[in-house]
Write a structure and sequence with these properties.
alpha+beta, about 10% strand, two-stranded antiparallel sheet
Length: about 100
């Protein structure tokens, strides 16, 4: 895949692409990739249970659960908790597989 479609997927406009040098386009796309990676790591950190050594998806009450997908499809969830009898706001949508 060429740079142009990736540039558009990163949210930049088509006219902006043609105003930039190759190096500037590369810098913007590298920055975009770093931001996406940071966002993914942040979402993964939100899913970890530090009590159990940072394992994902094991809270242990009443029992652990598993998530599987058909044909390798991605699974997205929103997580909330009940604290003192009240449900907390849902998290952002999280990709888990």
């Amino acid at each position: 895949m060429g740079l142009y479609p990736v540039f558009l997927d990163a949210g930049y406009g088509p006219e902006y692409f043609w105003e930039l040098s190759f190096g500037e386009v590369s810098d913007l796309l590298e920055s975009y990739a770093r931001r996406k990676e940071h966002e993914q790591k942040k979402r993964e950190a939100e899913l970890k249970n530090n009590t159990l050594g940072g394992e994902k998806w094991y809270w242990g009450f009443p029992q652990a659960f598993g998530i599987t997908s058909r044909n390798g499809e991605s699974i997205y969830v929103k997580v909330s908790a009940v604290v003192n009898g009240r449900e907390t706001p849902q998290s952002e949508t999280l990709k888990v597989s």
